[in-house]
Amino acid sequence: MDTLLDALQEGRLIELPDNDKTQALRFLAHILEAIPSVPAGTGVVELVMAREDSITTAIGKGWACPHARVPFDEDLMCVVGWSPTGIDYGAPDGIPVSIVAMYLVPANQRNHYLREISMLAKALAVYGSAEKWQAAMALDEVRDNLLDLISSTKETVGPDTRARMIQLQARATVETVSAPDLSNLLIEPVTLVTAPGMKHLVLAQNPSLVEVLDGAPGLIDAIASTGVFESAGWRVVKRDMVVYQAGRIVYDCLALRVNPAAVGKRGPKK
Fold it and tell me: Comparing C-alpha atoms, which of 127, 121, 115 is closest to residue 152?
């Protein structure tokens, strides 16, 4: 399960902002799309949602593994979302999903992906019930549980994997900030306020984000029609909206951005 370990090592474990299945899937898919090595226009959100419409990707014991297959060559990529309250996912065992491990599967990584999922299924069978995921109170605890899960299958725990796990555990003991860096992924809450005859209002803590969105043409139209707006490296995703009297609308959004200069480009694994 080297790709799952990569996700932990590179900070791609995140607490999901929603316990709604659709919103959680869209959020994780947008994170994958924001990775610089993923070509623009890949459509990860649409690929993930289309597959989920055809068959549930819940695998039981509080886990789901949605994925998107793409036609280019790259590394197998994974992002892991944790839902503290659990997601009503329609799992075959009826257990709410606490862990969503979403994979981006390039054309040259199909066999790698199948091996990874097979190992994950074996590890979950050894690891036991979903109680540890449901009882977790913080991301650090979830990360420790995931490391335990990886170590529970002997197939994946070679010297290199064990060393990486030790490094992760050591880092967890000295970190003073619980929020992960998500491999230089910025996630900013943003509120957009609009009303007939007035310029939209942007409320956010990040000054550069406010500057980008404050004068962005087509922002409100895009958020209202597709739920997504992109500009200057930022991807703004609509989470919810509230309509008030006199046509006033408040959009609750998240803005995502990866700094390409801070992310090293690796060659695809074989």
Answer: 127
Phi-psi group of 132: left, alpha or beta (phi > 0 → left; psi -120 to 50 → alpha; rest → beta): alpha
For the beta carbon of residue 226, count every other beta carbon within 10 angstroms.
9
Question: CB burial class (10 A; 0-12, 13-18, 19+) of residue 55?
Answer: exposed
If you count DSSP H runs as helices and E runs as strands, how many of each does the chain have, helices first?
Answer: 9, 11
Q: How far is residue 106's CA from residue 108's CA, in Å, rounded to a whole number? A: 6
* CB distance 76 to 106 below 8 Å: yes
What's the pLDDT band for 168 if we cut at 50, 70, 90? low
Helix axes 110-127, 2-9, angle to 10 degrees: 80
Residue 35, CA distances (Å) to 107, 145, 238, 262 in order: 17, 26, 19, 11
pTM: 0.75
